[in-house]
Amino acid sequence: MKQIQSACPVRSDHPLSKAADIAYIRLGRKNLGSATEYYQDFGLDLMEKKEDRILFRGNSSDLPCWSLEKADRDFLIGLGIYVNSLDDFERLKALPNAEFLREGRINSIPCVTLIDPSGLPVDIMYVSEEKNKNQVDPSKELWNYPGESSRANLPRSYESRPAKIIRLGHAVFFKQEFLKNASWYCDTFGMIPSDIQILPGSKEPVIVFLRFDRGETLSDHHSIVIASGVTDSLEHCAFELDDLDEVAKGREWLLEKGHRSSWGIGRHLLGSQIFDYHRDPSGMLVEHYADGDKFDNSVPTGIHLINRKSLYQWGEDMPKDFLDTKLSLRKLLELWKGILSGRQISIRVLMELKKVADISPRTWIKY
């Protein structure tokens, strides 16, 4: 294991709850019309359309996973998380400063709202595992392999359409106070650090991939990722698809519709997902993925150096602007505001992270 200079987020021995899955993301959008059109092309199913709010879902659940809400700016409003234990829900409900909403936030399910250390509202809902899942048939596509021809005398069919999204898989957040926020999600929801990335020079931890602790039941390698950042913001969200073909079909449809691609197709290193990134009308990254790692609670935390190369095993050349390392006036103002408010922000760590992120991941890619 690589030597770590500072404290890292760790699995809590006595978490307040053991949450089950990510439920939804709430986004403020200036232009609901263009955002609605985009996310239908992206592959989400439209559930509800009101003047001030649009709800979408994947095909594995009848519950919403994506809420677009009318606002005067484009920003992250909140996060939703499911618990499968009523005792856990009641324990969180009894916490000081917890807000109980009997009618729910974006559906009729009662929820408890907590505020994470960055100020982000986190809604927690008790939902039985059965209620949150529809039966999703695995792909019935036949594949030919050397020595095994399952698709004999049958050409591969093709259907031009949006991707069929199964579910919201994970969300990646920048946080000015990395350790404080990451530890809060571990302590409050029993999340397990699957992998931690550290800076090559100082060995400071700067990114953690968190999975839900479901015991012997397999869970996604990461459902929430916390990364050191100049601002507190949402970096990207990812949606699970069936397989590589579905990822490619989704990409083809978005490009045909004139939408903006960002990076892909490729395969990640940590998490192993086949990925394809795009940008919605606000410029926010959204990801289609398939074939991600699944861990139970027995897998120990991995420690890895961070750099652009560590983001993928193979794939299209990573564009320089995929990682937004520019220090805009807005970012600098947010950073200054955080420092003035007394947050524990290391400028040294942020500068080293920016330096690492500016290095090309492959010898043939020139930035």
From TrEMBL:
Source superkingdom: Bacteria
Pfam family, one: Glyoxalase
InterPro entries on file: Glyas_Bleomycin-R_OHBP_Dase, Glyas_Fos-R_dOase_dom, VOC_core
Record's keyword terms, sorted: Dioxygenase, Oxidoreductase
UniProt-listed SUPFAM superfamilies: Glyoxalase/Bleomycin resistance protein/Dihydroxybiphenyl dioxygenase
Gene Ontology molecular function: dioxygenase activity
Family matches, as Gene3D superfamilies: 2,3-Dihydroxybiphenyl 1,2-Dioxygenase, domain 1
Domain VOC: 167-291
Name of the molecule in the record: Extradiol dioxygenase
Organism: Leptospira sarikeiensis
Lineage: Bacteria, Pseudomonadati, Spirochaetota, Spirochaetia, Leptospirales
